[in-house]
Amino acid sequence: MGILDLLLQVSCYVSLLGALVVLLLFYIISSCSSSQDDRKGPPGPKPLPILGNLLQLDLKRLHHSLLKLSQTYGSVFTIYLGPKKVVVLAGYKTVKEALVNHSEEFGDRDQMKILEELNQGHGVIWSNGEVWKDIRRFALMNLRDFGMGKSAIEDKIIEECDKLKELFKTFKGEAFDMNQPITCAVANIICSMVFGYRFEYDDPEFTSMVARANWNVQLLGSASAQVYNLFPWIGRFLSKRNEFLRSNAATVEQYTKLLSHLKETFNPQMCRGFVDAFLIRKQTLEESGITNSHFNDKNLRATVINLFTASTDTTATTLRWGLLLMAKYPKIQDQVQEELKRVIGSRQVQVEDRKILPFTNAVIHETQRLSNILPMSLPHKTSQDVTFQGHFIKKGTTVYPLLASVLYDESEWEKPRSFHPAHFLDKDGKFVKRDAFMAFSAGRRVCLGESLARMELFIFFTTLLQHFCFSPPPGVSEDDLDLTPSVGFTLIPSPHKLRAVPYAAAIIGRFCLHQRV
Length: 517
Hints:
Elements: H1 3-33, H2 35-40, H3 62-73, E1 76-81, E2 84-89, H4 92-101, E3 108-109, H5 113-119, H6 129-145, H7 151-169, H8 179-194, H9 204-220, H10 223-230, H11 239-264, H12 274-287, H13 297-328, H14 330-343, H15 358-371, E4 380-381, E5 386-388, E6 391-393, E7 398-401, H16 403-407, H17 450-467, E8 468-471, E9 485-486, E10 492-493, E11 499-502, H18 503-516
Parallel strand pairs: 2-7
Antiparallel strand pairs: 1-2, 3-4, 4-7, 5-6, 8-11, 9-10
Helix pairs in contact: 7-8, 7-17, 8-9, 8-13, 9-11, 9-13, 13-14, 13-15, 13-17
């Protein structure tokens, strides 16, 4: 090793030691200055200097650790993720009270450090203040104009179902990984609303956009990304952090090109989708002499990325869980198909059919509840000092509403850890709403695309169950299907393959098997 290399290595260690000393001093000073507030604050395990409670937590499955701590410290408690103070809310009543009854106080978004560098306060998910209010209001209004929650989008979902059915048929009953086909189908719905057109499933630009969005979501939930969020000064040593930044840089480049093409073909007299509506608003404001509005290129790009990623990942993941559960529990699949055949027959299912398909509707809701794909919600932040359930929480404190504790709340659900569609049925078999069903969160930050997601889930799920029976690959039993989720920002099914056998052929096969028995 050369002298220069040795000096550089020594310098690196000295810098690291210096950073640790600074953090330790910061911890001591902040602990002393806030001791009065901490005495009134929520309880929690005693933190270590610098590390906080990290040694007591599993960063790969943080929600599991927080659920266990809630059993000891109650429904409102404090943990330290490194030097970062976090208040955790657990249980249906507590989460509802915070997000709904105190929506203003708990309504800000806490920006993750790794995303702060990329979003810089832009977009509709990670922004706050007037930027968030303006962009969210505009997004809601225009997405509704382009069909969100209305019959106008129904035809596009049905069209995409037809494309997906044809693709499933090409596998001729052989087992295959349904991840990419389902994700592409769901992604095309938001693409048609945002860009004004859909993509073919084999379009390389489209497949790379979908794959990268999925990968970014999983990287965001990695332990390395979480460590970087807490200790950004060691970020250069984390390969996942650098991989995430490279992937997001490629995403930004791709969306910049897409938006440039839409700008080049932009005609304010013919609004094709959300992007055109945004450009019209931007042009109108500029013509009025307003050049510093929130309707700028950075907010447009960030919002489009937010809409695509959030709408695609959550709905596609839920659908994959739904089909996996049908293969895992064939008797429930039979009940769904019996109801569809008896009530709908061979015609195309419509959104309005929800009210006459109570069991199927209950199965979809129970899939969302049990799959629990976003167990901690996105992090919130208090917008002001607040006294909540007798605990003082300072302005700017990070808050984790633990949605898993709501969807698995033993005081609200009869069988919280089981797949039990009866959770959403009364004694007469009619569908019933449950207040503790918070799959889309609640309050000011409730999911922007909830009505669209509900439509997509219902039409995709029922249409696929009308035409296919889902089962494990040959040689794999239902008991062998693993429901353990993969680690990531959202809880996705572990890698698996399923068979999609055309419904008619599956029924004949079952009849023949019954005759032999």
